[in-house]
Amino acid sequence: MKKILTILVLFTFLFSWRAKADEGMWMLPLIEKLNIGKMTEMGLKLTAEDIYSLNQTSVKDAIVSIPGCTGEIVSSQGLLMTNHHCGYGSIQSHSTVEHDYLTDGFWAMTKEEELPCSGMYANFLVRIEDVTKQVMAEIKEDMSESERTSAINEARRKIEKNATSGNNYRVSVSSFFGGNYYYLLVYERYNDVRLVGAPPSSIGKYGNDTDNWEWPRHTGDFSIFRVYSGPDGKPASYSEDNIPLQAKNWLRVSLQERNIGDFTMTFGYPGRTQRYYTSYEVNELMTITNPNRVKIRGIKQDIWKNDMLKDRKINIQYASKYSSSSNYWKYSIGMNTQLERLDVIAKKQSVEEQFNSWIRSDEAKREKYGQAIDLIKRAIEGRAEYLNAQQYLSECIQGFELLGFNSFGSLLLTVLKSDDEKYVAQTISRTLGTLGEIYKDYSPATDRKSAKAMLRLYRDDVPEKFHPDFYAKIVDRKYKGDIDKFVDDIFDESLFANEDKLRTFLEKPSVKTLENDPVAEISASINKMIDFVSSEISRFDEDLNKGRRLWIAALMEMSPEKTFYPDANSTMRLSYGSVQDYDPRDAVTYKHYTTIEGVLEKYKPGDYEFDLPERFIDLAQRKEFGRYASSEGYMPVCFLTTNDITGGNSGSPVLNGKGELIGLAFDGNWEAMSGDVAYEPTVQRTIAVDIRYVLWIIDIYSGAGHLIDEMTITK
Questions:
Q1: Which of 454, 493, 537, 711 would you label with 237, given CA atoms 20 to 30 Å apart?
Q2: Mean pLDDT value across residues 111-131
Q3: Is the pLDDT of residue 151 over 90?
């Protein structure tokens, strides 16, 4: 086996040239080697040790991952800021028609009023460790790809086991650069996180779908939580005895002005990028993944929205579901638009041509990397029809909620078949106690409409060989193809379509009744097709994984003058840039900030996207901005930077050169929706809500000044 390059060698020839513009999501332990000089030139006042340290508190200790997003600690008492849309599920879970926190907002005026949030957590990064050598130690050159994968996975398991010995840390060994390098990530998770404050959705989601991914933006996209620990300061499940976290570090908050050219940093947990995709993979995105998502979700969302606008209860029930679905629905539209506009496939093909020329000139390189593109091409083309079916199964068939209750039904069935009567009784009792929570966010009438549309769409769009057999056995044979009648009967007959019916059943449960529930039969049919399609797709995994690994390694060796950074993979990253405006098209220039005047200009009374509270309008018109106004007297709302971010960065702090909080990243701009695949420096921008607007909403609009008192404010 040829000697595997060490990370040190990698740095010698891969990181000698800086990425263009402000591109890159950088790993914190590598900042001193790769970035600190450039960052200092741009305006950074901190050292690399101030940013990431194992020996002293550093900025990384104030940054947390939360479900799907990023948050930051802003007080010594564990106060956590993130985006409104990141906290949306928690806000929605506490909302009822009587206490509609989505519409009215919520502010805990004492710690006793803070609301526990099931499923919310805060992960603090403890350390990042290069374990490439350990992972690769048993890899042999003559191994097949499956053998290689097995050996790597076994090494990862051993490293993770050792890293958790004698502690309560959560760890993972993550792959970087397409499986060429590996790092150990160690976290400490706090599971008691409570809702402290959120503006009304008319502020926190101002502009809703229309303004999503668009500039100029006027959204107060923030919410506030608090992290709690056990009395001993260690992570603990929710308890009334828990105390506010005594934070190792927290971000200072700056009221300084935002000027073009000002240095900015973001820290966060970006989810996924595909910057090293080939043209074949980009084409798959453009022809299968994105158009399917747009079509299916568009139909489903129209059904939801129609019911949401008619019924306040349904609006609360489906608010979080709709928001989650629509975000990447619009993103997929924008991505395809910009990938086509920027001719990204042609640019990828140009790189591939350079690669082919490079390997033709060297037999050793041809032997080592020559099959990379062919492997990817063969896998992408081979799995196309199965990937299409898989996406329709996921987005369409599994897209109506009643089927999701089958897992619940399967669990009940297992319990009822038990000989342990005490266990059965206890389980039934617990189930009865949780049904209200299970059905709280479910509208059978809405789901019935969605199911009809989704099952018709699947039948019409997907080749028959991928139809679950309930179409032929039940829909065609029993209902003569009438999907509407088929769905109506399911919802009328199934125990799970009605909470009251299920409660009645649980008083005298029956194995036979559960086994004969129509949801069980349909789910079994669907799962059979899911297993088949997944199995077929997996046949191409080995070629695809090997091809991607070789391709990225080849790119790095082919261009030793370039700085390479790993694709985002939900691990902590830093990006840096500056405050900037941009020119989206000919004769158009966008300023780098928006003001509250723009909020008022968009105001439409009674509109679900652009309505505003009366108190907000009154304060804004009278310009009661307090110390949060700019030096020129206006109230800033949002601003733009060149920082490189993606999904998962939502809620990320935007920091100035001194490491002080100046805003919360929450979106990207429409002209750069191709950014996950191809960074475009002239137009790619991060949209952040200005911290001065956040503080004004907390303090002057909401009257929650006690939270401001917790923070460390600088000018």
A1: 711
A2: 97
A3: yes
Residues 644, 679: Cα–Cα separation, whole Å:
8
Region 426-430: what's the mean pLDDT? 87
Are the beta carbons of 641 and 308 closer than 8 angstroms?
A: no
- Do 417 and 533 sit in the same domain of this protein? yes
Task: Give the whole-angstrom CA distance, residue 76 versus residue 365.
Answer: 55
Of the chain, the percentage scoring pLDDT greater than 90 comes to 87
Task: Taking residues 382-396, report their average pLDDT.
Answer: 97
Beta strand pairing call for 106-107 and 192-198: antiparallel
Q: Taking 90 as the threshold, does the pLDDT of residue 423 lie above it?
A: no
Q: In what helix (H) or strand (E) does residue 697 lie, and over which residues does it extend?
A: none
Cβ atoms of 126 and 186 within 8 Å: the answer is yes
Residue with token string 């078949």: 417
| Residue 370 forms part of a structural domain | yes
Same domain for 401 and 296: yes
* DSSP collapsed to 3 states, 520-583: HHHHHHHHHHHHHHHHHHHCCHHHHHHHHHHHHHHHHHHCCCCCCCCCCCCCCEEEEEEECCEE
Which tokens go with 323?
Answer: 């928001």
Q: What are phi and psi of 84, to 5 degrees?
A: -60, -40
Give me the mean pLDDT over the 90-115 stretch: 96
Q: What is the mean pLDDT of the segment spanning 50-56?
A: 96
Catalytic residue among 443, 650, 652, 702: 650
Q: Which of 492, 530, 524 is nearest to 410 (CA)?
A: 524
Max Cα separation, the chain?
A: 77
Q: What pLDDT score was predicted for residue 4?
A: 37
Q: Average pLDDT for residues 484-501, to the nearest whole number?
A: 95
**Residues 302, 185 share a domain:** no
650 flagged as catalytic = yes
Q: Is the residue at 288 inside a domain? A: yes
Whether 64 shows a pLDDT value over 60: the answer reads: yes
What is the C-alpha to C-alpha distance for residues 652 and 663, in angstroms, rounded to an integer?
9
The Cβ-side half-sphere exposure at 237, using a 13 Å CA radius, reads 1
- CA distances in angstroms from 559 to 21, 555, 624, 700, listed in the order given: 18, 6, 56, 54
Q: Examine the pLDDT at 294 and tell me if it is beyond 90.
A: yes
In a domain, 704, yes or no: no
Flag whether 627 is in a domain.
no
Residue 592 annotated to the active site: no
User: Contact 470/522 with Cβ under 8 angstroms?
Assistant: yes
Same domain flag for 289 and 180:
no
What angle do helix axes 145-163 and 541-558 make, rounded to 10 degrees? Answer: 80
- Give the total number of structural domains in the chain: 2
Residue 88 CA to residue 198 CA, distance in Å, equals: 9
Same domain, yes or no: 410 and 292 = yes
Which one-letter DSSP state was computed for residue 690?
E
The β-bridge relationship of strands 661-668 and 653-655 is: antiparallel
Yes or no: say if 664 and 706 are a contact pair by the CB < 8 Å rule. no
144 is catalytic: no
Q: Pick the catalytic residue: 85, 218, 467, 592?
A: 85
Q: Of 209, 221, 543, 690, which one is the catalytic site residue?
A: 221
Point out the domain boundary residue: 189, 209, 224. 189
Residue 159 structural domain: 126-189
Eight-state DSSP code of residue 6: P
User: According to the model, what pLDDT value does residue 10 have?
Assistant: 38
